[in-house]
Amino acid sequence: MLLSWTSAQVRAAEEPLLAAGVPLMARASSALAGAVVRVLRERRGAVVGGRVVLLVGPGNNGGDALHAGAYLRRRGVDVLALALAPRVHDEGRAALVRAGGRIQAVTDGAAGAGREARAQRAERSGATELEAAVRAAAGADVVVDGILGLGARPGGLTGTAARLVTLLTQRTTPSDERGPVVVAVDTPSGIGVDDGGAAGVVLPADLTVTFGAAKPGLLLPPATHLAGAVELVHLGLDLGGAPALARLEDADAADLWPVPGPAAQKYSRGVVGVVAGTPRYPGAAVLATSAAVLAGAGMVRYVGDAGEEVLAHRPEVVLGVGRVQAWVLGPGVAPDDDAQRGRVASALEGVLHRGEPAVVDAGALDLLPERVPAHVVLTPHAGELARLLSARGHDVAREQVEAEPWRWARTAHEETGATVLLKGHVTVVVGPRGAAYAQADAPAWLATAGAGDVLAGLLGALLAGRADDAVEDPTLVPALAAAAALVHGRAGHHANPDGPLHAGAVAAAIPATLRALLARG
Ligand SMILES: NC(=O)C1=CN([C@@H]2O[C@H](COP(=O)(O)OP(=O)(O)OC[C@H]3O[C@@H](n4cnc5c(N)ncnc54)[C@H](O)[C@@H]3O)[C@@H](O)[C@H]2O)[C@@H](O)CC1
Ligand SMILES: Nc1ncnc2c1ncn2[C@@H]1O[C@H](COP(=O)(O)OP(=O)(O)O)[C@@H](O)[C@H]1O
Ligand SMILES: [K+]
């Protein structure tokens, strides 16, 4: 499991070590230099003579970059530090100069203009300075982004740094193999370290070397898309307490998946009840029931008017109401289908009364009671979450949910009591007692009609298989939801690696995906 901690948690864990004189910056910067050495070797086959440009901001993040630069200079690398703040880390600067590295202050003449003529002169020379800095960075083998790290204030980069990064990103395209490899120090500068925001301009990194612990912003969209590969450097921090946000890996999902023992029978393995689809829209019913069957449910009951189509595709499914261990409610249930909405409502009543876990998706979301237990999992996409929250008095649009998925998923959990699985390229799950996950397992090809119905059925099977545990320990529910998102994403890869997908193929890939996962786990 990949765990992440907030900047405050990391700083608190650093404090006792710093007080005891542990050289954290030396550890961080030598690991950073090691990463740059590897990049140089991969890119040019040699370290000596490589060109590295450091973007250096006012704090310790810049200090890390400068110390790493000193190390690289001693290895024969040509190092140029661009100081983007009036003052940069003193010791780091001295170390780089001692090692023979160059430092250049960059101003862009836009700030502090005095009298007109002087201002114009300053502007001209500043613009030239900035242009030269951009040229140097664009021509380097590696650019090290040490402008801001844990100390970044909300709102993103400002001033010279913002202008330089803007020009540099215009000059270089990520797919251009001749452009520099960007290595971010601790975090890409200017992202929301704790919330994954990307309010201003950010230099997209190919690699982020992060210190002590991963930060939530490295796992959350939109910032996660700017971090590249993330390499964690352990600093020996004692990070007590719960992590802020986690990401499950294959072994974690395998541990959570119920595997039948010799005494298993279909009822003990979990029966899933599915209220989905309509005669007009039978597809969702077929996909949700198929996914539940293929994910290994003991039995699947279908409730609704699309039974004929369901049986034509899945003869294993049993039609009609009966005892179930978990429900899947809402895929393909249209707002004008009173009969199916009535069945959803009565299943929801049962859920509140008897306490089975349930997946509440699509058309069932607007039938959700005021408060539900955490073993009810909502599975909205950003638009559906915005609608649900707006109906409860929050003024929020789809774009805002996409910009801050963790925040709004948390709000939905607080409002409803439910565990919330917010779908997207990164699927964010929030449950009780601060439990939160961000899963990035799916190929973008999975953004296809019906994929959500498959996820609902898959999660339903998992909840049915672990229904007693889920009801007993509500903090297990978000982990189960995250595991379902992982398996769903993996099934997308499995179904057609790097190519177009249709939802039926994703469902069909579930058994082999689970077999591979359980064999490795
Ligand atoms: N605490 C430690 O001992 C360690 C810290 N390390 C490094 O130190 C970093 C944190 O250092 P700092 O606390 O100095 O913070 P930063 O280096 O992130 O920068 C903070 C400085 O930037 C300014 N600033 C913040 N937002 C700004 C903005 N939007 N525009 C312009 N200026 C802005 C602040 O006023 C402050 O002067 C970590 O990210 C990591 O790279 C590592 O060396 C490991 C050990
Ligand atoms: N860009 C993306 N990359 C990867 N997965 C995505 C992306 N966009 C959406 N998904 C996933 O595809 C599925 C789409 O579900 P949903 O929006 O409910 O579609 P539908 O209602 O048609 O089934 C979700 O599991 C979601 O996480
Ligand atoms: K940085």
Notes on the structure:
This protein has helices at 7-19, 24-44, 60-74, 90-99, 116-138, 159-171, 216-219, 250-256, 266-269, 283-294, 307-313, 338-354, 382-391, 398-403, 405-416, 451-465, 467-472, 476-495, 503-508, 510-520, and strands at residues 2-4, 51-56, 78-83, 102-105, 142-146, 181-185, 207-211, 229-233, 245-247, 271-275, 299-303, 318-319, 326-329, 358-360, 376-378, 419-422, 427-430, 436-439. With 521 residues, the protein is α/β, with parallel strands linked by helices. The chain has two domains: 2-244, Rossmann fold (3-Layer(aba) Sandwich); 250-520, Ribokinase (UDP-N-acetylmuramoyl-L-alanine:D-glutamate ligase), CATH 3.40.1190.20. The strands form three sheets. The chain has a nine-stranded mixed sheet with strand order 12-11-10-13-14-15-16-17-18, with helices on both faces. A seven-stranded parallel sheet has the order 4-3-2-5-6-7-8, sandwiched between helices. A two-stranded antiparallel ribbon has the order 1-9. 53% of the residues are buried. The protein binds ligand NAX, adenosine-5'-diphosphate and potassium ion. Residues 362, 381, 423-425, 427, 442, 444, 446-447, 449-453, 455, 488 line the site of adenosine-5'-diphosphate (ADP). K(+) binds at residues 61, 145, 189. Belongs to the NnrE/AIBP family. In the C-terminal section; belongs to the NnrD/CARKD family.
As for the CATH topology of the largest domain, it is UDP-N-acetylmuramoyl-L-alanine:D-glutamate ligase
Structural class: alpha/beta
| Overall number of structural domains | 2
Number of alpha- plus pi-helical segments: 20
The first-level CATH class of the largest domain is given as Alpha Beta
List the strand order in the largest sheet: 12-11-10-13-14-15-16-17-18
Portion in strands: 5-15%
Strand count, sense and barrel status of the largest sheet are: 9 strands, mixed
Percent in helix:
40-55%
Distance separating the two termini: 12 Å
